[in-house]
Amino acid sequence: MSVIARCSAVRLLGAVAGALFIVLVLAVRIHDLGWGALEVVLGCATFVSLALMAATYPLRTVFDAEGVRIRTPVRTRVIPWLEVQSVRRTRGRQVVTSSGLRAMRGGLVLVTRRGTVLVTDRCDSAEFAEQLATMLDRVSPALADSIRSTSASTR
Q: Rounded CA gap, 109 and 85, in Å?
């Protein structure tokens, strides 16, 4: 049994559009003024940020009995369940609805021995959390309880 999570395309497009805007501003500055220290620093910072985003931004995540497979724009990373210490959520946000403000849960983050790994950038449904916890009951009951507690505490 596997559970699949997909990330928000709008956030990915927003990140790429922001980086492309910086590249456009940089190109205009270079065309008008030539290369200077600011242009070199801005170009390097843009390149590094795009490379980091391509290497770490999750597009699709598959949870199965062996571990977590995270597909990013340039690679697939596999994290075995033995490396996962806990599951947390990113900070949620407030959304304005017709009935007032509503708190939205954040995405899932895995805490591993090497650091934190973003698994999905948007809030998932209660059904998704329960499917994931049910699958994890066989692999790691502690992580399954962690999923249930983060899901219940942020509803």
A: 11
Asked whether 117 and 5 are in contact (CB, 8 A), the reply is: no
Flag whether pLDDT at 151 surpasses 70: no
- Please give the average per-residue pLDDT across 100-105, as a whole number: 67
What would the two tokens of residue 70 be?
């995270």
CB 130 within 8 A of CB 137: no
> What is the residue type of 96?
V
End-to-end CA distance of the chain: 26
67-71/60-63 β-pairing: antiparallel
Q: Which of 72, 73, 89, 87 is nearest to 123 (CA)?
A: 89
The pLDDT tens digits of the residues spanning 25-60 come to: 888 888 888 888 888 888 888 888 888 888 888 888
What does the pLDDT read at residue 79?
92
Q: How far is CA 106 from CA 6, 53, 66, 124, 136, in A?
A: 14, 19, 25, 8, 20
The number of C-alpha atoms within 13 Å of 9 and in the hemisphere containing its C-beta is 0
Q: Please give the model's pTM, rounded to 2 decimal places.
A: 0.71
